[in-house]
Amino acid sequence: QVQLVESGGGLVQAGGSLRLSCAASARTFSTYGMSWFRQAPGKERQFIAAISRSGRTTDYADSVKGRFTISKDNARNTEYLQMNNLKPEDPAVYYCAAKYAALVERVTVDAQSYDFWGRGTQVTVSS
Asked: Do 36 and 94 contact (CB within 8 A), yes or no?
Protein backbone atom coordinates (compact mmCIF):
# COMPACT_ATOMS: atom_id res chain seq x y z
CA GLN A 1 0.00 0.00 0.00
CA VAL A 2 1.25 3.45 -0.93
CA GLN A 3 0.13 6.56 0.89
CA LEU A 4 0.32 9.88 -0.90
CA VAL A 5 0.09 13.28 0.77
CA GLU A 6 -0.18 16.47 -1.26
CA SER A 7 0.85 19.90 -0.02
CA GLY A 8 1.57 23.36 -1.37
CA GLY A 9 -1.88 24.44 -2.48
CA GLY A 10 -3.29 27.83 -1.62
CA LEU A 11 -4.49 31.16 -2.93
CA VAL A 12 -2.48 32.97 -5.58
CA GLN A 13 -3.14 35.85 -7.95
CA ALA A 14 -3.54 35.22 -11.64
CA GLY A 15 -0.09 35.10 -13.20
CA GLY A 16 1.46 33.84 -10.00
CA SER A 17 3.13 30.54 -9.16
CA LEU A 18 2.69 27.62 -6.80
CA ARG A 19 4.68 24.47 -6.24
CA LEU A 20 2.76 21.38 -5.23
CA SER A 21 4.46 18.44 -3.54
CA CYS A 22 3.35 14.84 -3.16
CA ALA A 23 5.13 12.79 -0.52
CA ALA A 24 4.90 9.03 -0.95
CA SER A 25 5.30 6.29 1.63
CA ALA A 26 6.45 3.67 -0.87
CA ARG A 27 9.79 1.99 -0.10
CA THR A 28 10.30 1.46 -3.82
CA PHE A 29 9.20 4.90 -4.99
CA SER A 30 11.57 4.67 -7.95
CA THR A 31 9.41 1.90 -9.44
CA TYR A 32 6.27 4.05 -9.55
CA GLY A 33 5.04 6.23 -12.35
CA MET A 34 3.37 9.35 -11.02
CA SER A 35 0.91 11.96 -12.16
CA TRP A 36 -1.20 14.97 -11.26
CA PHE A 37 -4.91 15.35 -11.92
CA ARG A 38 -7.31 18.09 -10.95
CA GLN A 39 -11.03 18.38 -10.38
CA ALA A 40 -13.03 21.58 -10.30
CA PRO A 41 -16.54 21.73 -8.81
CA GLY A 42 -19.10 20.16 -11.13
CA LYS A 43 -16.44 18.89 -13.52
CA GLU A 44 -14.80 15.55 -14.17
CA ARG A 45 -11.31 14.75 -12.98
CA GLN A 46 -8.84 16.06 -15.55
CA PHE A 47 -5.36 14.81 -16.42
CA ILE A 48 -2.67 17.46 -15.92
CA ALA A 49 0.76 15.83 -16.07
CA ALA A 50 2.49 12.49 -15.76
CA ILE A 51 6.06 11.32 -15.27
CA SER A 52 7.80 8.00 -15.76
CA ARG A 53 9.30 6.04 -12.90
CA SER A 54 12.78 7.24 -13.90
CA GLY A 55 11.66 10.86 -13.96
CA ARG A 56 13.07 11.35 -17.45
CA THR A 57 9.86 11.12 -19.50
CA THR A 58 6.90 13.44 -19.04
CA ASP A 59 3.57 14.25 -20.64
CA TYR A 60 1.22 17.20 -20.17
CA ALA A 61 -2.29 18.25 -20.94
CA ASP A 62 -2.38 20.87 -23.68
CA SER A 63 -3.95 23.37 -21.28
CA VAL A 64 -0.86 23.44 -19.04
CA LYS A 65 2.01 22.87 -21.48
CA GLY A 66 4.65 25.53 -21.11
CA ARG A 67 3.27 26.64 -17.73
CA PHE A 68 3.45 23.55 -15.49
CA THR A 69 6.42 21.28 -14.87
CA ILE A 70 6.24 17.85 -13.27
CA SER A 71 9.28 16.33 -11.61
CA LYS A 72 10.16 13.40 -9.38
CA ASP A 73 12.85 13.04 -6.76
CA ASN A 74 13.34 9.33 -6.12
CA ALA A 75 15.79 9.99 -3.29
CA ARG A 76 13.19 12.03 -1.42
CA ASN A 77 10.13 9.92 -2.37
CA THR A 78 8.49 13.09 -3.61
CA GLU A 79 6.78 14.29 -6.75
CA TYR A 80 6.38 17.95 -7.61
CA LEU A 81 4.24 20.14 -9.82
CA GLN A 82 5.62 23.61 -10.49
CA MET A 83 2.78 25.80 -11.69
CA ASN A 84 3.63 29.13 -13.28
CA ASN A 85 1.45 31.79 -14.87
CA LEU A 86 -1.65 30.49 -13.14
CA LYS A 87 -4.88 31.37 -14.88
CA PRO A 88 -8.50 31.78 -13.75
CA GLU A 89 -9.30 28.35 -15.27
CA ASP A 90 -6.72 26.55 -13.10
CA PRO A 91 -8.51 26.52 -9.70
CA ALA A 92 -9.37 23.00 -8.58
CA VAL A 93 -8.44 20.32 -6.12
CA TYR A 94 -5.18 18.86 -7.33
CA TYR A 95 -4.50 15.16 -6.76
CA CYS A 96 -1.35 13.13 -7.15
CA ALA A 97 -1.52 9.50 -8.18
CA ALA A 98 0.89 6.58 -8.39
CA LYS A 99 1.07 3.24 -10.12
CA TYR A 100 3.72 0.56 -10.30
CA ALA A 101 5.47 0.83 -13.67
CA ALA A 102 7.16 -2.21 -15.12
CA LEU A 103 8.56 -0.14 -17.98
CA VAL A 104 11.09 2.48 -16.91
CA GLU A 105 10.02 5.22 -19.32
CA ARG A 106 6.30 4.52 -19.59
CA VAL A 107 3.99 7.48 -18.92
CA THR A 108 0.33 6.86 -18.05
CA VAL A 109 -2.31 9.53 -18.58
CA ASP A 110 -5.61 7.77 -17.80
CA ALA A 111 -6.90 8.02 -14.26
CA GLN A 112 -8.31 4.49 -14.24
CA SER A 113 -4.80 3.04 -14.48
CA TYR A 114 -3.63 4.54 -11.21
CA ASP A 115 -3.80 2.46 -8.05
CA PHE A 116 -3.03 5.02 -5.37
CA TRP A 117 -4.34 8.54 -4.84
CA GLY A 118 -3.77 11.35 -2.42
CA ARG A 119 -6.58 13.33 -0.82
CA GLY A 120 -5.87 16.46 -2.80
CA THR A 121 -4.81 20.03 -2.21
CA GLN A 122 -6.87 23.09 -3.12
CA VAL A 123 -5.56 25.65 -5.57
CA THR A 124 -7.39 28.96 -5.84
CA VAL A 125 -6.55 31.72 -8.30
CA SER A 126 -7.79 35.26 -7.84
CA SER A 127 -8.17 37.55 -10.82
From this structure: yes
The full length of the chain comes to 127
- Do 34 and 98 meet the contact criterion of CB atoms below 8 Å apart? yes
Render 75-103 in DSSP notation, one character per residue.
Answer: TTTEEEEEE-S--TT--EEEEEEEEE-SS
Per-residue pLDDT of the chain (127 residues; tens, 9 = 90+): 899 999 999 999 999 999 999 999 988 999 999 999 999 999 999 999 999 999 999 999 999 999 999 999 999 999 999 999 999 999 999 999 999 999 999 999 999 999 999 999 999 999 8
